[in-house]
Amino acid sequence: MMGEAAGEPRTVQALEGLWNLQRADSRLALARTKRAALDNGDALREEVEAARGVTEASAARLRQSQAALRDHELQLESTEAKQKKIEGDLYGGRVSNPKELASLQEDLASLARTRDHLEDRILALLDDVEAQKADAASADLAYRALERRLAAHLAEYAAARDRLDTEIEALVTERAGLASAVEPRLLKKYEGIAAQEGGVGIVAIQSEWCGGCRNTVPIDFVTRVREGRVVTCERCHRILYIEQG
């Protein structure tokens, strides 16, 4: 007879057991889908690493500018010391030779130009250092905030993962118990259909409709299902079931 499998168990209890198995399988599939969809934080880790890179680059630029500032300050100190010595020689009366005096004056003028250049450069570097300090502090602040976000996210992920793993383990155990109670040939048929139909091997008839494909179920099919016969939908080929009211 179309839609009915020959040689299958013909008891309402057999279909009831199969329906309970389907519900367990659906819950198990849902739990596994949720488990697979959990965000393990990889994307956020990448953000943290990128922020770390920005922070390190900002800190490196700051250190470089600070080192340049210190170097120019030392050069300025050395230049001013040379100026003081030459001024002492020039105005202290130690040198009287006109040629030597002219040379000292040239050296003094050159040092003055060097000092002016160094002072200008130091002022620019001071501005750079202050700006880079602000940039480095801002980058570090953003990096630390992302680190806190990642830590909180990973804690939530671990809790959700552990909860779902526990749920899946319990459902696997429940599923094994329910499957062991189903007649082997009927279980094999159900699992074969479920493998081809998105994990759903048995569906409830809702009014006159198949709960799987919404195809109309003939009245004689409904009658045979009520009798406990294994009947499949003409369109989606899933086993049909009627919930007992």
Short description:
By secondary structure, this protein is mainly alpha-helical.
The third-level CATH topology of the largest domain is: Helix Hairpins
Fraction in beta strands: under 5%
Unreliable stretches (pLDDT < 50, length at least 5) are 5-9
The major β-sheet equals: 3 strands, mixed
What would CATH call the architecture of the largest domain?
Orthogonal Bundle
Structural class: mainly alpha
Radius of gyration: 42 Å
Order of helices and strands: HHHHEEHE
Provide the CATH top-level class of the largest domain.
Mainly Alpha
Strands of the widest sheet, in order across it, are 2-1-3
Q: What is the mean predicted local confidence, pLDDT?
A: 93
SSE layout:
Blueprint: H1 12-37, H2 42-91, H3 98-180, H4 184-196, E1 202-206, E2 209-210, H5 219-226, E3 239-241
Parallel strand pairs: 1-3
Antiparallel strand pairs: 1-2
Helix pairs in contact: 1-3, 2-3
Can you describe this structure?
With 245 residues, this protein is mostly helical. It has two domains: 85 residues, no CATH class; 116 residues, Helix Hairpins (Orthogonal Bundle), CATH 1.10.287. Strands 2-1-3 form a three-stranded mixed β-sheet. A hairpin with a 2-residue loop joins strand 1 and strand 2. Helix 1 runs antiparallel to helix 3 and helix 2 runs antiparallel to helix 3. It starts with 11 loop residues before the first helix and ends with a strand.
